[in-house]
Specification:
The structure is a single chain. Helix 3 runs antiparallel to helix 8 and helix 6 runs antiparallel to helix 8. This protein has helices spanning 2-14, 28-34, 44-68, 70-73, 88-102, 117-130, 136-141, 149-171; strands at residues 103-104, 112-113. It starts with a helix and ends with a helix. The longest helix is centred in the first third of the chain and has 25 residues, at 44-68. It contains eight helices and two strands, in the order H-H-H-H-H-E-E-H-H-H. A two-stranded antiparallel ribbon has the order 1-2. The protein has a domain at 59-172. It has 173 residues and is mainly alpha-helical. GO terms for molecular function: electron transfer activity; heme binding. Residues 1-21 form the signal peptide. It holds the Pfam family Haem_bd.
Length: 173
């Protein structure tokens, strides 16, 4: 009987919350036209800056993102037991595909995205300051998925430093 209660809970918790999955933003147009922004040629100065930012990312931020973001923005190492339930699997696959189209974290910084690395950092900074990730329906099934205050502080600090680095490089051009 416990399995039935879990299934009912999950269906009730996840199904009506589809609207909250990614807010009201759509990225289809940007994805089609600018999917390869990061893959464009990068000058030597930018490359060095990206390496510096990535070094800090690997040390301080990636461990946080692995725990809190990689289930959708990368390839999850394990899927929960309810992933095999009809309907839930399709919904989760859709959410993971959508998340990766927005910001794919399977590679290190700079992420594969429909935005520039600078704009990705601004988005990450905004999420650290204002929230918005993970989506409500993910939180309903993963109570510990919200960022802690210490994690938010670390992400905001890293993104702010990184934004300043990239902006300073733009000024020197």
């Amino acid at each position: 009987m416990k399995t039935n209660k879990k299934t009912v809970f999950l269906l009730l918790a996840f199904s009506p919350a589809i609207v909250f999955g990614h807010g009201d933003e759509t990225h289809e147009e940007k994805v089609k036209t600018t999917k390869s922004v990061v893959q464009k040629s990068v000058n030597t100065t930018q490359s060095a800056l990206y390496e510096e930012i990535n070094k800090s990312y690997l040390k301080n931020i990636k461990p946080i993102f692995e725990k809190k973001c990689f289930d959708c923005h990368a390839d999850p190492e394990n899927t929960p037991w309810y992933y095999t339930l009809p309907g839930i699997k399709q919904m989760m696959n859709y959410d993971m595909r959508e998340a990766k189209e927005h910001m794919d974290m399977r590679k290190d910084f700079p992420f594969i995205s429909h935005e520039s690395p600078l704009n990705d950092l601004k988005s990450i900074q905004k999420i650290g300051m204002e929230g918005g990730m993970p989506p409500l329906r993910y939180i309903l099934g993963h109570w510990d998925s919200r960022l802690t205050d210490a994690e938010k502080k670390e992400i905001i600090s890293w993104s702010t430093r990184s934004i300043k680095l990239l902006k300073s490089e733009k000024k020197h051009k």
